[in-house]
Amino acid sequence: MSEVVAAPARRPVIVWDLVLSIVLLVLMAGLAFMLLFFSFFLAFAGDSCGASSTCDVDRIGTGMLLAMILPIVVAVLALVATVVVLVLKRIAFWIPLVGMVLMVGAFALGAAVTVSGVQPA
Predict the structure, then answer these.
(1) Long-range pairs for 83-90 at CB < 8 Å and ≥24 separation?
(2) What's the chain look like in SS3?
(3) What is the pLDDT of residue 1?
(4) With the C-alpha atoms ordered 43, 47, 52, 55, is the resulting torsion angle positive or negative?
C-alpha cells in the first residue's frame, strides 16, 4: 500500500548553449569597455562652446555620465540574468545578445543627450 514516487527528471546541461553564452559574455564585456572608452570622447562636444555655439554644460556632463554608466549597468544586469538562466539549465545565449544591443542603445542615448547640450549660434 505504499507508493513509490519517482523524483522528477533533472534537466541536462546544454553544452553548446553554455559555451556560446560564455563566449558572448566575454564579447559583451569587451563591448562594455569599448563603449566606456568612447564615452570619454564625448567631452569634445563642448569644444565649440563660447566661440560659435552656446552650450548647456550640465546637459553635456549628464549625457557623458549616461554614456559611461548605462552600458556598464546593462552589462552587469545581462551577466546576472545569463548566469541565473544557465543555472536553471534553460537556453541563455540570447541574453548577452540582447544586452549588447541595449548597451549600444544606452550609449547612443547618452551621446544624444550630450549633443543636445550644444546649440549652434
Answers:
(1) 86/17, 86/18, 86/21, 88/11, 89/10, 89/11, 89/12, 89/13, 89/14, 90/11
(2) CCCCCCCCCCCCCCHHHHHHHHHHHHHHHHHHHHHHHHHHHHHHHHHHECCCEEECHHHHHHHHHHHHHHHHHHHHHHHHHHHHHHHCCCCCCHHHHHHHHHHHHHHHHHHHHHHHCEEEC
(3) 62
(4) positive
- C-alpha cell belonging to residue 82: 545569463
Cell of 40: 570619454
Q: Angle at the Cα of 90 (from 86 to 96), degrees rounded to 5? A: 60
Q: Compute the distance between CA of residue 91 and CA of residue 82 in angstroms, rounded to an integer.
A: 9
More confident residue, 11 or 87: 87
The pTM assigned to this predicted structure is: 0.87
pLDDT in tens, 21-80: 999 999 999 999 999 999 999 999 888 887 778 888 999 999 999 999 999 999 999 999
Residues 6 or more apart in contact with residue 21 via CB below 8 angstroms: 82, 86, 92, 93, 95, 96
